């Protein structure tokens, strides 16, 4: 029987991929068996998904075969859906079998947080995966085709719930795409409404106010209507109820209002807050020195006591440190604490427009849009080098 420790990574998102790649660098031959489990045989770039969802980019730019990102001689890839995580038995249950582990890395992506809004989980679309993106793109075009047949004005109303980064980036792409679709379907674009509804008192909550104002002005010029400080009370098959029981007729509602941790986490018995586990400074689950949780399902607080948002750059940094701490654990050496290094924040506003904060510097317009491309290219370079940059990068 092999005595080599078994490391299992569940999820091939930003954190999972970076953990696997860093383990390839850290571990010596036969120091551990590493297995990566993922539902699909590809890794997708979540921060790109708003573009193919609106139809302004192809899906192929957003997904990469995992086999191109890992060394098959160092990491075993299992394509499978995790049904249960059983910490007491140190076992992962899949749809078609199970496997044991000595050390577990949970990098499962999050799930839409609907905050209990009635009907949101049933009638709204979400931007969370390649499959959900396909559905949104086809749904949007189908509504225009149906309108030409039945004249239902609700088919020309597109409601996006949430004006955080995901919501703003999606309405920006939608505002770029819909004029083209209107021409293709012989529809007057002035009849189309893109309505962004946000319960918070501002769009892009927590972002620099000057840049928020700039972003909203850009999107208003593109035809976006904002309903800020107005909560969605209920989502219906034919629209939403907002504010003081006002109904907005719409056959398309896309929810971007937040995410929570993966449901498998709570099911496994971990104590959670909105599905996320408050992990220790070394990325471990409380009471489980053999389980690391990273990405959307992890909860960490900044020095001011506020939770870090579940962003791609945090997941990436967690993944790298997680691999290093796994190697240190195997070698019985001191673990390192997670210290977030903020590289800046960029929000795309569609073609040629964006807003960004890098350090104390505020950037907007075309320069910020180029910075967004650089950020995307940097990630491709980190996980796949120059060949992946040339294959998947957006340069124009």
Automatic annotation (TrEMBL):
Q: Which domain of life is it from?
A: Bacteria
Q: Name one GO molecular function term.
A: NAD(P)H dehydrogenase (quinone) activity
- InterPro entries in UniProt: FAD/NAD-bd_sf, FAD/NAD-binding_dom, NADH-Q_oxidoreductase
Where the record annotates domain FAD/NAD(P)-binding, the positions are 6-319
User: What keywords tag this UniProt record?
Assistant: FAD, Flavoprotein, Oxidoreductase
Q: Which GO terms describe its biological process?
A: aerobic electron transport chain
Its required cofactor(s), as named, are:
FAD
Family listed: Belongs to the NADH dehydrogenase family.
User: Under which name does UniProt file this protein?
Assistant: NADH dehydrogenase
